[in-house]
Predict the 3D structure of the following.
Amino acid sequence: MSNILILGGDGYLGWPTAMHFSAQGHEVTVVDNYFRRDACRELDTGMLYDVPNLIQRAKIWHEVSGKRIHVAIRDLADPDQMRSLFDGTAKYEGIKATGPSSAPDTVIHYAEQPSAPYSLMDYSRADVTITNNLRVTNNLMWAVKDLARDAHIIKLGTMGEYGTPNIDIEEGWLDIEHKGRKGRFLFPRQAGSIYHTTKVMDTDLLWFGVRMWDLRVTDLMQGPVYGLDTDQTVMDDRLGTIFNYDEVFGTIVNRFITQAIVGYPLTVYGKGGQTRGYLNIKDTLQCVEKSLDSPADKGELRIFNQIMETFSANDLAEIVHRIGTSRGHAVEIDHIENPRKEAEEHYYNPTYQGLIDIGVEPHYLTDDVVNGLFETVEKHAGNIRKEVIFKGVKWD
Ligand code: USQ
């Protein structure tokens, strides 16, 4: 069994990940500074339902499953706060306020400002994004180097690091022949937002740590995630994950389903040819689990493209329109002026085989899955506020 430290354990992916590993009998510690909750409150974003705080969540999880998750509320942009999680000096909250029995052997790093629109709202949010994301990653790297050198870092990256190049996207690396000589380099990155740019820089930081100190790192280049049900969130209503349907923190599939339910025309940005790789939240958990089961070697930066299938915004709108209509919703599709600066028609051909090779079995966006999403979101239809779905955060 592993001793797993989850940074950003209160977020959309962090909390389901914590319960997933705890259910399997691993020792799990979650850390968070409540950035996401605070930002949602400040910006008055759309959240489908309220979720208990992290300390309450751990108590509820204990009540439901009999398992313990250690909780620490910390700002990991502070290096001493980060190091306290590795040297045994951190204070813990929650049930008996106990901490883990030893330093972690695996660290799952989600502790980042995750929204591209947020990072482009204004200079101060850009600053929050850069300061938080880079400092947390750097602090983690140094804590592992100094205090837990063998720990496996599983870092959530993003497919947006690559942008939309006019060539096939490889899994992290590209072999290049130049003037008769050959070398292997990180695949060229050209991020489309300040947020995505911080992810590029994170990868570069960790690649440095791997070269310099033989750290072991898996970087998961994830596409937009959809869904909210996992084997553990469905065990009790109070264990649900944070679900946003606004343009700042909500991702496209979750947004479109919510919009369809309340009769808000689906907001396809511009021409709608923007193509991305998507995955079910259940597959995020699987991908992290398989990465943990077969860790990167010492001195290896292993990169996986964490997507299961690709869709354009138009494809997704058509799917949600068809299924929403069949469920009796009056669904319309609206091509609105694109608030972002991005290619609306482009070549997109990423490779995504590495995770399948280590045992991930994809869930696809089938009609059954979309119907399931509708069913869950419909239960909370009374909470959906139309006025916060789209406020028009312009990127340019
Ligand atoms: N889009 C629309 N209408 C909407 C919302 C989005 O047409 O109402 C389009 C966007 O313009 C974009 C695509 O759908 O081309 C995906 O947008 P998104 O909001 O679902 O996702 P994105 O902003 O790219 O970011 C999300 C997560 C981020 C993660 C990223 C993976 O918020 O944390 O890193 O997905 S990726 O997109 O592959 O970089």
Observations:
- Residues 350 and 359 are 19 Å apart (CA to CA).
- The chain has a mean pLDDT of 97.
- Residues 114-116, 158-160, 196, 222-224, 247, 251-252, 255, 267-269, 274, 276, 313, 340, 342 surround sulfoquinovose-uridine-C1,5'-diphosphate (CB under 6 Å).
